[in-house]
């Protein structure tokens, strides 16, 4: 095991596809993905000597992935930075961008308010400003506008820190946000934190989490920590506080990061006794940075989902805290408490098949929970895949743990919220329900008669009680199946019969020759218009 390189002296972060070899397009079984990922090898050799897709050894090579000719839609790193550092109540984010880059704020505001409510914090609006770049700014530059926005934000709201995020537009015209930040930091005497998160820098929106965490590590986290032996960092999103109850027997107080955490709560991250997360894909960067820089240990385990995952996770924290003597008794008592309810749920859910469509290691945990409930899973999607996490700890290899504990998943796909592929993926395995985050995909499942459980509260499946919560929710979700069947009879999908009949959702990547048959715009048109002449050309291809 080797720790990944995280260099906090640099203002910028290396993209995840280069740092970890992450991918967004892949199709095969979960076992195959474990083998191809070569977690141990990547962890040991970092990125120096791995064989790349070309067959040659390449520095920073990615796992070989399918090259799709287009993206139907995607989030970007700029958006992710918005929903991370834009969700710190006593700080402000300034998006140095045209106003269109802020179009998602209404949704972010809702998520932020729900998160504040779940944690019992004062409910308020997100505090994100935009410099609202116009045509003249693109020609003559907009640094003065940025300076003025920083001053206005400071004068009106007295934030404890101000973040600035780069967008595609400001990256194209070469705005020097780092110099402006330094200059304004001296003038205002609060951290001004530039974040280089222009959307076109990476196909992986998840790099935006690393960029957000990097800025907090560099300019907010306390550099002279006074240890707090009862404090545990939980790197999270907006979920309900189930962790306090789970960790109470170990005498731990939870310090949630980043969303809804105050400046001071983020600053004390370096003072904690241990760091853990609900999702290694999200939390591994910051956990590893805290471990490398301040000696805050992170868990040597997977994630707290299902019996085995929760047992291992608790044991790892207990070991770090020197409380191994009490943990076995706690685990035994918890198993005895929840098992009768879980047995009853298993009987009710017998013969049901599920499908998970969420972020990467969170999906591994989610599948563990539904397999604990006796539900069959022979297909699922993750929106990206990291072949290794920043910690390099083999105990955190969540996909391998899933396969070793609960068996293979025949159709395990990496696909980044692509609606047009989702139909084929669901059709291939025909599940009774789906569990989904990024619920823009959920209506498509409903239109083909499959009820969807939109997992808004990502902590819902955590811990032993999480198995029960999910089981009970699924019984309610399955009750909507009839509604889905009726909806299916009255809805027509906007795709051609040719596309809907494809068994391989990646046919356009595997057979690029199809694209040579017709000009690309014509092909795209034929995918959505049944009667077009191009559709018949493709049908005969
Ligand atoms: S991809 Fe670029 S232009 Fe689009 S929202 Fe993100 S930063 Fe703005």
Which properties best describe this structure?
541 residues; alpha/beta; Rossmann fold; four-stranded parallel sheet; 26 helices; 47% helix; disordered C terminus; binds iron/sulfur cluster
What does this structure look like?
A hairpin with a 5-residue loop joins strand 2 and strand 3. Among the domains are: 126 residues, Rossmann fold (3-Layer(aba) Sandwich), CATH 3.40.50.1980; 44 residues, no CATH class. The radius of gyration is 24 Å and the shape is globular. The chain contains 26 helices and 15 strands. Helix 10 runs parallel beside helix 13 and helix 14 runs antiparallel to helix 20. The strands form four sheets. Strands 1-13-12-11-14-15 form a six-stranded mixed sheet, sandwiched between helices. A four-stranded parallel sheet has the order 5-4-6-7, sandwiched between helices. A three-stranded parallel sheet has the order 9-8-10. With 541 residues, the chain is α/β, with parallel strands linked by helices. It binds iron/sulfur cluster. Iron/sulfur cluster binds next to loops.
What's the SSE blueprint?
Elements: H1 16-19, E1 26-28, H2 30-37, H3 39-45, E2 50-51, E3 57-58, H4 77-84, E4 91-96, H5 105-118, E5 128-130, H6 135-140, H7 143-157, E6 161-166, H8 168-172, H9 177-188, E7 192-195, H10 207-219, E8 231-236, H11 243-247, E9 253-258, H12 263-267, E10 274-277, H13 280-294, H14 306-321, H15 324-348, E11 354-358, H16 360-372, E12 379-382, H17 398-406, E13 411-414, H18 419-429, E14 433-436, H19 442-447, E15 452-454, H20 463-478, H21 481-490, H22 497-500, H23 507-510, H24 513-517, H25 520-528, H26 533-540
Parallel strand pairs: 4-5, 4-6, 6-7, 8-9, 8-10, 11-12, 11-14, 12-13, 14-15
Antiparallel strand pairs: 1-13, 2-3
Helix pairs in contact: 4-10, 7-9, 10-13, 14-15, 14-20, 15-20, 16-17, 25-26
